[in-house]
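Title: Prediction job returns without error message
Component: structure pipeline
Severity: low
Priority: P3
Assignee: unassigned

Description:
Job completed but the reporter wants confirmation the result is attached to the right record. Sequence as submitted:
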Amino acid sequence: MAFQSPLRLMRLNEVLDLTGLSRATLYRKIAAGTFPTQHKLAERCCGWRAGEVELWLRNPQSFTIADLKREAA
């Protein structure tokens, strides 16, 4: 598999396929702070950073937004 940058932006369908979550569950987890938030790309376009989604995939049961801050530090 080729190197994938952790800064690469993933669109909604790719995130749903990768995580196995439904759209409603994904947005419910974002609201609860247990999934990384999306980044606005344009007026009607957003994406998720691949590195943040990968971090969630490592530990989906106990992930919190604070994990992203710890990883960045």
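Comment from assignee: result matches the submitted record. The radius of gyration is 12 Å.
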